[in-house]
């Protein structure tokens, strides 16, 4: 690498999104990447983050570090979800500014939008209604991250951007039986049902709620794309008080269709049934991705191909995941 290459800090490189961003940056090969594990650097610790930025000259930051989890985890540990995420983003964003980092990309979540937001959800829906109660603390932390970036841009003239991904899945996902999201949870359940030769599996609710799913490698490509946009181009397609950009496929499917697609990928021959006595959650969550498309990027990995890739990763790491 040449001496002119950018030095990029990827915060959260061991997570699903952070590791995908590292892979994408390595493919491009025009930068030096700095990473730290949570054991090496506790991003919740202000003094530790300050020392890290003191010791490293950094040009750009991808802020993918976060405490994440599914409905059960958000509902069980609300204090940890709001505290940890607020501390991580506050420390990293402020120290990036304090140490002259001009460009930063903050990764948020689609849960920032109101529970009853008009579908598909546009960036303008932010703060237009009540949040989903089960993950409100996490959503508030992510909204704070967006507003931190906007505020530092307005006051200090830095270039801190935010991307809001839809539901992500793929290599490096969390397969915990209680704390995982819907795709890894279904992959694990259906895989185990196949191994046990169970004649059926039952999913919660009616199966009719619709969700959008984006492969994490597409998310990584979109993140690097948005980070590298010319500042003028980026600003034309955003506004000072609406600086975040949705990232998704613009397409959704029902939870039942998702389960059936996963069963097909895994080769499960049993029946996928629903349990209408269990809650469905929000009827639909779909992102409006027209802004990102106008900028010149769209998702490329189809759902079935992406699910096959996710299942392949799961099979390769089964031994490590078995104890989870």
Structure description:
The protein is an alpha/beta fold and 324 residues long. The longest helix is centred in the first third of the chain and has 21 residues, at 78-98. It has a 6-stranded parallel beta sheet, sandwiched between helices. The protein has a 3-stranded mixed beta sheet with strand order 11-8-13. It has helices spanning 16-28, 46-55, 71-76, 78-98, 136-156, 182-195, 216-227, 231-236, 255-266, 290-295, 303-316, 318-321, and strands at residues 6-11, 31-34, 60-63, 103-107, 159-165, 167-169, 200-204, 210-211, 213-215, 244-247, 253-254, 271-275, 284-285.
Topology as a string of helices (H) and strands (E) = EHEHEHHEHEEHEEEHHEEHEEHHH
| Morphology call | globular
User: Largest sheet, order of strands side by side?
Assistant: 2-1-3-4-5-10
Structural class: alpha/beta
- Let me know the average pLDDT: 93
The number of distinct structural domains comes to: 1
Range of helix content = 40-55%
The level-1 CATH class: Alpha Beta
